[in-house]
Amino acid sequence: MAADRPEIDVETLARLRGADSPPVVLDVREPRELAVCALEDALHIPMGEVPARLGELPADREIVVMCHHGVRSWQVTQFLRHQGFDNVRNLAGGIDAWAARVDPSLPRY
Fold first, then answer.
1. Which of 7, 91, 95, 107 is the most interior residue, by most CB within 10 Å?
2. Domain 2-53+61-101 has what CATH class?
3. From the candidates 67, 76, 80, 97, which is the catalytic residue?
4. In the chain, where the domains are located
């Protein structure tokens, strides 16, 4: 369970996305950032909207929260853990690390 590992690196997430039961990737960046680059199949809820949209998050699956560099997503990860979501982790380095180390075809900004 993610309770003992609140952070995940991009390489591990890339492997898990190919699993039978992949984690839900929650992208908390703003719409203007999504226009630059985004991960396919990610759930997009801007950071400021997360408290009002908790009902959209699955309680029965692992959630990996991401943003641009991992700062906003860390804050959302901690917020979700305080709301009772035990199986949630922050994506270290955010989409910038993903673009640098997993998918260099994504634009970096």
1. 95
2. alpha beta
3. 67
4. 2-53+61-101
